[in-house]
Design brief:
hypothetical protein yedk fold, mainly beta
Length: about 220
Amino acid sequence: MCGRFTLTVGPDDLIDEFQLELFPEDYQPSYNIAPTQQVLTAIHSKDGRRAGYMKWGLIPFWVKDPQKWKPIINARAETLEEKASFKHLLDRRRSILLADSFYEWKVIGGKKTPFRIQRKDGKPFAFAGLWDRKNHTGQNVVTCTIVTTEANSLVRDIHERMPVILENEKAIEAWMNIQEYPFSKAKEFLRPYPSEQMHKYPVSPFVNSPENNSVECIKPIIL
């Protein structure tokens, strides 16, 4: 699964890396992104790729009372076509969430120790996502979820699942461009990111609280 991640790079790097035509002026890096927060996403439009914020935790448009619905932060790639919450989005509302690492927790000596997992080159990457819009009490609520897959060998030591990290520009374009790539073609890119291109290291329990959001979250510790 994916329950916490980071996005610490500057806007210019993100615009260049993901070929974004529109980028929010109020962008702020974050060392500890948690469910229900606003997360930086991007979608494909006729004017190119547009980045903006959505609330992390999917609420399908057909939910009558969002207050009684548990927002969905992760969606299993293997069952997307079977689930009512996702299947109507597969050819209509695919997105990417921008990140540069994610956290997972491993039990060591009876205690949960957080690990930061990122690309070896430190560059940002794109999670495969789905989004939906619901009108509630006169307001549009835009929410999203992260697609997950089986863990690669690097992550499997900590958790059996990991977020789908789109491996390259071809994968990103196929996932975002719903006009040219139906889900039947795009789904081939929902696979584990190559473990040899990633690394992980333990970090302080400081990251355990979503209220903590500073560089202290990503500083390595010695076990």
